[in-house]
Amino acid sequence: MLTVTFLGTGAACPSIERNVAALALAREGETLLFDCGEGTQRQMMRYGVSFAFREIFFTHYHADHMLGVTGLMRTMGLQDRTLPVTLYGPRGAARILGAAISLGIERNRFPIDIVELQAGDRIRRDEYDVVVFPTDHRPDTVGYALAEHTRPGRFHPDRARELGVPEGPLWGRLHKGETVELPDGRRVGPEDLVGTPRRGRSVVYTGDTRPSLGVVEAARGADLLIHDSTFSEEERARAEETGHSTAAQAAEMAREAGARRLVLTHISPRYTRDAPELLAEAKAVFPESVVARDGLTIDVPFAD
Ligand SMILES: [Zn+2]
Ligand SMILES: [Zn+2]
To answer: Parallel, antiparallel, or unpaired: how do β-strands 202-205 and 262-265 relate?
Structure first.
């Protein structure tokens, strides 16, 4: 299971229809948060996102992406949390996030680590990597790609039985790619029983950005690209000036990257909840586009 829940989809300041930036990614029982605008904790309660997460990844430190961390940490302290939390972010994390988490209390009741990252870093996990890529918003702003590792191909139990491989540990070793020796001395290799390796899923979140080559590279073949779409083409100059993208530009990035699906987020308060003009603009370039709204949850299935 891999799902993304949009906790806040508005740009700059909260409105009645949209809270500011935050999203939760749930993968095989683990929750990761990306950005944490003001009021994120209440959005988590509203949309059923677990407080048992261990990490928040910040794209940058504009207020609409980080003011929520103070209250969220306070609430978790009041809930007698003991699990540690790690806050990741680009340059400035120690100073800015350090200040944000020390407001309003004498001491934190659970461990909070702050880790500074830079574009090009890769956090390696057992089943996926979190890849940090450059964005074009301000100096040192980054986006994140969660890229699952390639999985072994499908194991064919019928063929294993036909070949006389006894069910049990040998099946597991074959599935992992080992050649095994059977009790009767015959050797059987994975090529006889296991299909071709299957590509892992990938989800890419840009945070705030102008159209950028860094995004295209990070989103190459991505299952889901979540892209800044603050404005429409009518405001293209304004987008350029403020370091954001239009819906059409976001769609161009998705098309260039060969992504499967695009979600437009970080929507200016000037647009209505459904933002039909942004949707039409994006779909004209990249048909598999949707406009995010708060509470939207998207499943990311395997391509095969
Ligand atoms: Zn923003
Ligand atoms: Zn920003």
So the answer is: unpaired
